[in-house]
Amino acid sequence: MAKKSTSEAVEAPLRRSSRRSTTATPGTKTQQQGNSAAESTNTPKRKSVSKTSGTKEPPKKRQKASKETDTAKQEVEPVKSANGAKYEDGITSESRQYWLLKAEPETRLENGVDVRFSIDDLAAKTEPEPWDGIRAYAARNNLRAMKKGDLAFFYHSNCKEPGIVGTMEIVEEHSPDLTAHDPKKPYYDPKSQPSDPKWSVVHVKFRSKFDVQIGLKELRTLCAPGKPLENMQMLKQSRLSVSKVSADEWHYLNELAEKKAVEVKSEGS
């Protein structure tokens, strides 16, 4: 009974393998038994592969989540300007405007009030400073065109050595200049009424002071045809107290200020 049971157990795989081959030989019998054993052994392996393939799906989901996280990081990353500088306020180099504002660093009385104001005075301020007293329409229109985040040169005017001495930032856009309605203020204008204000003011804050100022004489040498400042508004309209500055002019003058500072330091060393 035991042999019969063994014989039946051997014949069963032979009958399955005989369907694949038309010739039955003793040699193929052993080979087919080996193939049958291999097939029976591979069966659980295929199940194992199926289980393994099932466990590969969660990592794909994790990768997808990682991509979403990277996208979120890119969305909150500060905007970069054309030269690589990052602006936390999101202002790009294309949308930022540049200006030049004049002030008088030496004492001068207007309506009994000293109107002296230098870049050192601005640097000492702890709050945004109102740039008031503008009483020319072209200059006022430039004030009204300013946007928060714009940058401006601070220019010392009506003094022994006029020139660009540093930079500042526009932190509040234009609003009515209330000093025009006060008879005690230096630039009182009786024609301007609170109900219909003619003049405007912006608020600025200090950014930097140049180690060496760029004097008016040097600026004039740079405004000849073919020179970097040939179209600079301040040099073409010298009496304008608030003028536009192009992006190229802005970058050129800042680089010039840095170059002058390096030259002075190298001479002193």
From TrEMBL:
<feature type="region of interest" description="Disordered">
    <location>
        <begin position="1"/>
        <end position="88"/>
    </location>
</feature>
<keyword id="KW-0539">Nucleus</keyword>
<dbReference type="InterPro" id="IPR052181">
    <property type="entry name" value="5hmC_binding"/>
</dbReference>
<protein>
    <recommendedName>
        <fullName>Thymocyte nuclear protein 1</fullName>
    </recommendedName>
</protein>
<dbReference type="InterPro" id="IPR047197">
    <property type="entry name" value="THYN1-like_EVE"/>
</dbReference>
<feature type="compositionally biased region" description="Basic and acidic residues">
    <location>
        <begin position="57"/>
        <end position="78"/>
    </location>
</feature>
<dbReference type="Pfam" id="PF01878">
    <property type="entry name" value="EVE"/>
</dbReference>
<feature type="compositionally biased region" description="Polar residues">
    <location>
        <begin position="22"/>
        <end position="43"/>
    </location>
</feature>
<dbReference type="InterPro" id="IPR002740">
    <property type="entry name" value="EVE_domain"/>
</dbReference>
<dbReference type="InterPro" id="IPR015947">
    <property type="entry name" value="PUA-like_sf"/>
</dbReference>
<keyword id="KW-0597">Phosphoprotein</keyword>
<dbReference type="GO" id="GO:0005634">
    <property type="term" value="C:nucleus"/>
</dbReference>
<feature type="domain" description="EVE">
    <location>
        <begin position="97"/>
        <end position="255"/>
    </location>
</feature>
